[in-house]
Amino acid sequence: HQFAKINEILQDIMRMESLQIQEYYHSYQPTDDPRTKMRMNQEIIDE
Predict the structure, then answer these.
(1) How far is residue 31 from each of residues 3, 20, 43, measured CA to CA in Å?
(2) What is the pLDDT of residue 8?
(3) Rounded CA gap, 18 and 15, in Å?
(4) 10 exposed, middle or buried (CB, 10 Å; 0-12, 13-18, 19+)?
């Protein structure tokens, strides 16, 4: 049962993080160039 609860919390965190990343993309889109998007993805992963 403990694992199920931890899993729920992880799911919530993942959802929140993906929402934050989506907001980040919407508020900061210097260009729609895919290479720029890839670079931004890499920066998010590196943080």
Answers:
(1) 42, 19, 16
(2) 92
(3) 5
(4) exposed
The per-residue pLDDT for 31 is 60
Rounded Cα–Cα distance for residues 9 and 46 (Å):
23
Global pTM reads: 0.38
AA identity, residue 27: S
Helical (H) or strand (E) element with 34? helix 34-46
Parse the chain into domains and list their residue ranges: 2-46
The rounded Cα 36 to chain-centroid distance in angstroms is 16
pLDDT beneath 50: ranges in the chain = none
Task: Tell me the residue length of the chain.
Answer: 47
